[in-house]
């Protein structure tokens, strides 16, 4: 099928820099970040330190590298990181952690939406009676991607931080979509950061910058982060050319995240009408939509392939089709996506059996 327009819902990482970002990148005042004298990088790091209320920050190419450097700094080889069982760090990043740092994970199953409960965390941090297994770090992911983009309230983070502190274990916040959590809850980045020993913020997801994430923490932690940045081969040079886009993202990105969330709910509501039981719109608080497609006769991968034939790019996870809204997707395009879902049901030519109500157990 020939399509006139491609609508990319694979991730909120696919956005293109705005005209304002491109102008800022072209005009950026730069130096050599290896030496720490790139003025635009330094401005971005100072801005994030101020935003988070932390003493210092370090600009890095990716959120994964932020997580890996943070865990390497906090965790001894052969020791444990405690995290929710489907967190990014113990899923997509587990091979990196093994190769770079020799880290093991103690995975704790959430009761709903990927949100850890304080008593479950407390049990996971109980000392090993044989003094073999040691936990060095707790990692929280906010929002939790596989939990449906659910934002963790500040009070919940504070409660978990209190549990971790009682066990003398630091808490790290994987804030790849923390700005989405702030937009959904009304909390500030600093309010979340106050309950973490260190955190990462991504500028290249919902905020729309073309590259980069920032680690923030105390001065000694960031001193070690900068050492590890060089050790891991991420000591880029005139990085101010991309840091400039990050500064623009901080200026213009946060306020428009609400429209991404509204578009995600519009998408969820439309799919729920087209394919009853596939999505519960009330379970879509931010910009991530999972559609349960079991019982449709097509696997998630087949759905993704057929959507692509209609100009819609999506991804799949076991049992579900994943779609993310972002700055480059308009409300009118969401309606085009829903029209494609309707056409695919006609193309299938059969009556779909409704999936189990809203898919699988929440987590």
**Sequence stretches where pLDDT stays below 50 over 5 or more residues:** 350-356, 358-363
Kindly report the spatial arrangement of strands forming the biggest sheet. 2-8-7-6-5-3-4
Helix and strand content put the structural class at alpha/beta
Oligomer: single chain
Average pLDDT, to the nearest integer?
94
Helix content: 40-55%
Structure description:
With 363 residues, this protein is an alpha/beta fold. Helices cover 41% and strands 15% of the residues. The chain contains 13 helices and 12 strands. The protein has helices at 19-27, 39-52, 63-74, 94-101, 118-124, 154-166, 178-185, 189-193, 219-231, 240-252, 257-274, 300-309, 331-348, and strands at residues 7-8, 56-60, 80-84, 104-108, 135-141, 171-175, 198-202, 213-217, 288-292, 312-313, 315-317, 320-324. It has a 7-stranded mixed beta sheet with strand order 2-8-7-6-5-3-4, with helices on both faces. The chain has a 3-stranded antiparallel beta sheet with strand order 9-12-11, covered by helices on one side. The protein has a two-stranded parallel sheet with strand order 1-10. Helix 2 packs parallel to helix 10 (240-252) and helix 5 (118-124) runs parallel beside helix 6. It is globular and about 60 Å long. The model is unreliable at 350-356 and 358-363 (pLDDT under 50).
